[in-house]
Amino acid sequence: MNRKDADARAEVDTNVDLAREEMGRKVQQERQSMDHKLMQERADMDLKLRLQRADMDNMVREERENMDQMLKQQCDNVDRKIKEECDNLDQKLKHERQEMDRLIVLERVQIDSENMQARVEMDKKVAT
Questions:
Q1: Side-chain-facing half-sphere of 51: CA atoms under 13 Å
Q2: Tens of pLDDT along 5-28?
Q3: Rounded CA separation 46/40 (Å)
Q4: Dihedral through CA 76, CA 79, CA 81, CA 82, nearest 10?
Q5: How would you label 38-62 residue by residue, b for 16+ Cβ within 10 Å and e otherwise?
Q6: pLDDT at 50 > cutoff 80
Q7: Which strand (E) or helix (H) includes residue 128?
């Protein structure tokens, strides 16, 4: 019976060794499968993040372009208003100068008339 027990033990040991090897292969395959799955998930996540980043960059760029356009329009409006105000002031100044020139001419005519009148009276006094 000793021999039989020894053979049975050897067979059990062999079966245990074979089962260990099989279990080791399965564990290794499972690890490889998990590693592959994790790498794929990481690649998918990286791609998703890159796409989100690109979307965010596009949104920021579009928002910046919109803000630039709004600021340009506001600046154009301010420039237009300033030009209109300057044109109005130039017109007003031109009219005021014309009025001033007219008043100066009238004043000169008045002075010339008074001088002429004074000469006529002086000539009359001298003649008499």
A1: 6
A2: 888 888 888 999 899 999 999 999
A3: 10
A4: 180
A5: eeeeeeeeeeeeeeeeeeeeeeeee
A6: yes
A7: none
CA-based diameter of the chain, in Å? 185
**Token pair of 60, please?**
């920021």
Tokens of 128: 């008499």
If phi over 0 gives left and psi between -120 and 50 gives alpha, with beta otherwise, what is residue 66?
alpha
| Type of residue found at 9 | R
Distances (CA, A) of 25 to 16, 38, 55: 14, 20, 44
Q: Encode pLDDT of 115-126 as tens digits.
A: 999 999 998 888
For residue 48 the two structure tokens come to 């998703």
Cα–Cα distance between 49 and 42 in angstroms, integer? 10
The Cβ of residue 83 has, within 10 Å, a number of other Cβ atoms equal to 10
The DSSP secondary-structure symbol of 1 reads -
Lowest mean pLDDT among 6-15, 32-41, 78-87, 109-118: 6-15
